[in-house]
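Before a computer can learn anything about folding, someone has to put a protein's shape into writing. The outcome of that step, for a single protein, is printed below:
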Amino acid sequence: MIKIASLSEIPLGGSKLIFFDETPIALFNINGKIHAWDNRCPHRGASLSDGYISDETIQCKYHLWKFSIEEQCAVENDQIKIRAFKVNIIDDDIFIETKP
């Protein structure tokens, strides 16, 4: 696990973009729970970190595809998955597991 950010850097309902080994990772603070996803939309590679964030979905701004936060897949097609990273919180620090 590697430290990638601090909780205080991600506002409730907000996001933060970081990079690890050239992989863009979007961190989302949804209802106080941190989610870490590959920032690239599986449709056309657009950024998800600046998408529309709700309590249940992240919507890509490029073609408006929606992704379920809990299911980590497209709302309209659960076969289209988002690469998610396991998150651990220790004190104010956010750690992710970088290996599948």
Q: What stands out?
A: The mean pLDDT is 93.
